[in-house]
Amino acid sequence: MARYALIDGYLDAMRAGLNGRRDLDDLVCEMEDHLYSTVEGLCSRGSTPAKAERTALERFGDPDTVATVYASSKHGGVAMPTDFTRRAGTFAIVSAGLLALFGAYWIVWSEFLDSRFEWEGWGSSLYMVATFVLMAGFLCMTVAAVGIIQRTGTKGLLPIVAFVFLGLGTVSTLLAWFVGAWMLMGGIGALCTSIILLRSGLGSTAHALLFGLGLPTGLVTFVAFRVAEFGRVDEWGDYPTATTIGVGVGCFMTAVGLVGVGRWLRSEDPIDIERTPIAA
Q1: Of the residues 41, 71, 101, which one is the last residue of a structural domain?
Q2: Based on the domain organization, do 111 and 143 belong to the same domain?
Q3: Do 30 and 80 contact (CB within 8 A), yes or no?
């Protein structure tokens, strides 16, 4: 790949301005990739190398200004809408629909059908379908969380914790009846993702709170009603009404939050580095 003196000088200035960052090398390499790919794209459309180099640097911005923005960033990465973050918005909306569907199933099964319904005949098959609906909802929510993390440009421990717990929550949905497990794991992951979003100042605060607090609120509600021995007692000594209320609160609160977050992610036009300066 051909080298360009102006770009190399620009990157040296950026490196000096960002000295002290732990991710300095990764960030400069990312900028280098953007700049060189822009130059190559302009050259492929007929621009001379010298003109393409100057145009790319003009679009990227003054190195001192960009370095100042990155140096003062709390998040540590490039925060901009992309094609992936837009698709993540779609996954968030799909996840909302799947969680709402599972919540509705649980209410109908637990409160209006026989308590042994899911273990017998066609009821067993429907229970398995509902389990996979819940798992698919968690998978889509995990993709949405990755999109949120990328959109906010957040790096560090919190995104890792969010991803790990959402992954554990997804695995836990294989035991859909074990409400405490998937609500706890998924709730921690969603809460961490919500904190990331709230710290960034992006999107709707209300939807971020609903998304992050939905599953934890559902879990607390379930435990509270269970301790209070609320509702009828089934043949296994459980309190299905307490579980139903917790699942309903958790699934529907989270679904409303995901719809709002998803619509926000989908509303943003992806930034094309060849046409638009990077926004940090």
Answers
A1: 71
A2: yes
A3: no
